[in-house]
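S.,

Sequence below, as promised.
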Amino acid sequence: MGNKLSEPIKVGNLTFKNRIMFPPLTTGYEERDGSIGERSLNFYERLAKGGAAYVVIGDVAPVRTASPTPKLYDDSQIPVYKNLADTLHKYDCKLALQLFHPEYDVPGVGRMIMEAGIARQAAAKAQAEGNAEEAKKQMEECDRLTKGAYAKLHHDMQHFVTEATVEQLEDIKNSIAACAAKAQKAGIDAIEVHGDRLLGSLCSKILNHRDDQYGGSLENRTRYALEVVAAIKEAAPDLMIEYKLPIITVNPDGSLRGKGGLEAEEGIRFAKMLDEAGIDMIQVAQANHTGNMGDTIPPMGDVPYNWTLPVAREVKKLVSVPVATVGRVVSLEAGEKILEDGDADIVAYGRSMLADADIANKAISGECIRECLNCNKGCVDAIQGRKYISCVLNAENGNEGTIFIKPADEKKKVAVVGAGIAGLEAARVAAKRGHEVTVFEKSDKIGGQIHLAAVPPRKSEILRSIEYYEKILPELSVDVKLNTEADCEELNKFDHVILAIGAHNMDLPMSVTDSNVVSAWDVLAGCEVSGACAVLGGGLVGTETAEFLAQKGLKVSIVEMLDQIATGESETVMPLIKKDFEEHDVKEYVNTRVNSIENNVFHAVNTKDESEVTIEADTIVNALGSKKNLFDDSKLTVPFVYVGDCSGERTADISAAIRSGYQAGNEI
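The prediction came back faster than expected:
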């Protein structure tokens, strides 16, 4: 592999020490007022320590908004951004703020939310004073204002771009320029203009229905974006200016992906206009403004790797400034090839750097990286659920100041029993700390349940989690003994034991007679199934097993006691599953409790109306969940700990398994 990723590059008045950037991601790490607190600072410092040349702070609002993103609208906020810049500069890491304005009337919505808050306080005061009638009246007013604010927000997200007055647009432009000036005072290196959201909506043929100087032709629709660029250059002449260019791409079925931004042909023309306007760098990215984060941050198996690269390649041919590419670049080899082929100058590793903050340093050292799975479970789902961002594979995200691998005070001999994901992570961390580690695995390969999880449609990429350990454990001199069961006599020869013995598919709890029952685990492991299949249990495993069977051409029903299936699945994945279910006519029986199974017939009850439900099948697939495996630890005479599926009352998902393994390995 070449080493172009590690080559420096001049961008405007800056020199990046390498070609690896961290693109803007909403993190949720900021304080409630949008300032950069300890959690944010530690997270971004960790990326700089890992060797990133250029870090962009995502979604920095130049006005006071209700949205949970960073904000820089007042001089009193400058010191926290200066502290962030100074911290990253210690590692020769350049820092940019991505400036954006939401596509709604921020002051208007803000006033309604503030008035609702005043009414809520008045209601509480009246309640405390014993005036129930006044309290009720004020709460009704609070509800009315809150509903009105959300109704306006919903309306504006679709129509503000067309309805905003020229004066409103002028005020927004001035606020963005003023924010850039504050960034310059704080010692920030660059501004990334967020070409999506308001600017992208104005550029868009789909969303912009104006008939003034900002609507109609490409020149008119892009006029405001160019005015914003000019205003930033005037307000902060010392800063490098990057433009995030959102492209509306085309799905395999011919439909458009994204609404805000420009289709490829117009986007390439606009890139040339940006170059002529004096922009210093262009990042070609996927357009959004659809309400579906899966469009811009697609899950595994949905789109090809680096699916926006073809447009970046065309942009690079036309412009004189460096071009960055972003989106599903998961390996160093992929990044190297992009640079070798001359398709882009800089590679953005976003979710990938959540999985492994040391990507840039490892590009030099040659150590293998932990590659992102694109599962969206810890990152996208967290942000949509108003939690802070993290990666299922990285136990340190969001807690970099307190959770890190500590060198061992004393080298010990450590045994890990079980080579599922929890045991493998425990082995890695213990070995990184300097311990001598032996892993005992009774099967003929490492990985445990990950091999089953990789079988359903679009899920094969999850195997990257195992491939990482196959590479890193030999580098750390971990001795992996396959086809080996360790007994207590053997384990007592070690100084410390980590038990990661996993779980098994639980038995059916109801009466079952004369029926053909197989477990979901057996199905995913290759057990032959025929005829009509009824999957009992609509959790993640059941849903994925049902989709797997449906794609094999079988008639499938899925039965779940809750009111919906796959409650823990990513919001970016569920639309893909639902579409697949529709195409294969998968029947969903929700709110359904199965009381007994006799002669391959489910005798069930609808829990909402207590009506009887009868479901017939040739094969019944038990996907009701897993139960931890047990180990007789009574003869262990050395310290031991359980991790992963076998460590608690409930079995663990991949994130919980990784974190319990990491903690166990780090505390020996």
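Residues 106-152 form one domain.

Coffee later?
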